[in-house]
Design brief:
single chain, alpha/beta, Spore Coat Polysaccharide Biosynthesis Protein SpsA, Chain A, seven-stranded mixed sheet, two-stranded antiparallel sheet, globular
């Protein structure tokens, strides 16, 4: 089977988690695109959307979980905890992630305990960047590399590929976007290996960003400080 011009590696042991909130304009596109990938399961963790997001998800027969705790990070954790595949990965519901990158992650996972997708490796860019977002990511990535000694190039992009047994060991707590940093930090603290892998981001298919550069940046900074105190 081929998708996007590449040979498909089996993903029949991979659980894909997608956190959603009012994604009716893009979720149909996303679920149609990933259908040929034959995931073990697709889990939608929905933050109580007030549009047709849940109805669209159910049309595709995917598992839908209504989020029980507030925060995007909380949705991610809930999805990963409920997943039962051998491997776990994540995508947003706006069409900006490239599912073909999961193939390359799967092909490299036997050499590592986890793979972390990066929008910036090798000088690549994100189409979603503003000056503030680009600067903020560079600052946080520099902090993560220096303070936690982690060799990643995109600290605020959550696109992991990780063994379920290892994620259960990591046990992240962050309910907000700090989880992007927390998972690599906790994984490294456990002595597990990882690969920083290029995964270029696309223009979102529809919708608007739900990230506030100022308020979410402040939350992440606070989360990083707490994470350092815990380490």
């Amino acid at each position: 089977m081929e998708q996007e011009g590449i040979t498909m590696t089996s993903l029949s042991d991979v659980s894909l988690i997608i956190a959603t909130y009012n994604e009716e304009s893009s979720l149909d596109y996303v679920l149609t695109e990933i259908d040929p990938y034959d995931f073990y399961e697709v889990i939608i963790v929905d933050g109580h959307s007030i549009d047709e997001t849940i109805s669209i998800a159910k049309k595709y027969g995917v598992k839908v979980i209504l989020q029980t705790e507030e925060g995007w990070g909380a949705a991610v954790i809930e999805g990963f905890k409920n997943a039962t595949g051998k491997y776990l990965t994540y995508m947003d519901g706006d069409g900006s992630y490239r599912p073909s990158s999961i193939i390359e992650m799967k092909e490299n996972i036997e050499e590592y305990d986890a793979i972390f997708g990066s929008r910036y490796k090798g000088g690549a860019k994100s189409p979603d960047d503003t000056f503030i977002r680009s600067l903020g990511n560079k600052i946080f990535t520099y902090i993560v590399r220096k303070v936690f000694d982690i060799d990643i190039t995109d600290s605020l992009f959550f696109f992991p590929f990780i063994k379920k047994v290892d994620f259960d060991k990591v046990e992240p707590k962050s309910k907000d976007f700090t989880i992007c940093i927390e998972v690599p930090v906790l994984l490294k603290n456990l002595g597990l290996s990882y690969l920083d892998l290029l995964s270029t981001e696309r223009e979102r298919y529809a919708g608007i960003t739900k990230v506030n550069a100022v308020t979410d940046g402040a939350k992440i900074l606070y989360g990083v400080i707490k994470l350092k105190l815990r380490s």
